[in-house]
């Protein structure tokens, strides 16, 4: 991936600060919240119910040169997302407001409760921020078999920004209304969750195509690394590695093949209007 001099200024780096409050429910609460998150649910209610009831962590450390370089890289990617989505929204008669990107280590406070590294990167609609603990990428490589490159980070960030785009377009709110209505079964809401996640993959593909056309950032192997990351976190791959079998009814993010398909559809078309995963998957 080719670096540029772009910097977005919308990155808040908390890695050198102490963590947030320890969750009052202890480690068990964090595990339950992480499970809920990976199943496609909203962990904020469990996290916020225990947040702030423990003692704040005050340990601080100096960022290393490598830490600072990673921060610059994410800031650069943040700017790329701003530039591309500004253009896409303008073309469709809308205004884009960028999310804040928060880098943290181990745990920090978010608008959805306490963010914890075990949850992986996520987007919080409540404060319109993307939370990223960079240790996730070690897990992605060591536990799920993806070869991690700089563009792997770019893909994951673009996927989370894709969720922000969904919030700006009202998709997140509609999905939340469906979940809160109580009218739909767990299996039905799982299908809605899959459509939501695949659309974020599609948006990441659109971003990749449009950003490269403008900035010429892609180098040989970059798109393949994004595909490998998407496939690695497919529900079937995760279930096969964690429990030894696949249960399609419990999918919440889509299969490896689906994640590749929708990312590549976004990349090949570069057209946000081609990403109606809900109509395609919920017929």
From TrEMBL:
Entry's localization field: Membrane
Q: According to its record, how does it sit in the membrane?
A: Single-pass membrane protein
Q: What is its main location?
A: membrane
Q: Which keywords belong to this entry? A: Membrane, Transmembrane, Transmembrane helix
Coiled-coil features, chain-numbered ranges: none
Q: Where are its TM segments located? A: 20-39
**Where does the source fall among the domains of life?**
Bacteria
Task: Tell me yes or no: is Transferase among this UniProt entry's keywords.
Answer: no
Q: Which PANTHER family match?
A: INNER MEMBRANE PROTEIN, PUTATIVE MEMBRANE PROTEIN YPFJ
Q: What is this protein called?
A: Neutral zinc metallopeptidase
Q: Which species expresses this protein natively? A: Chryseobacterium gambrini
Task: List the taxonomic lineage.
Answer: Bacteria, Pseudomonadati, Bacteroidota, Flavobacteriia, Flavobacteriales
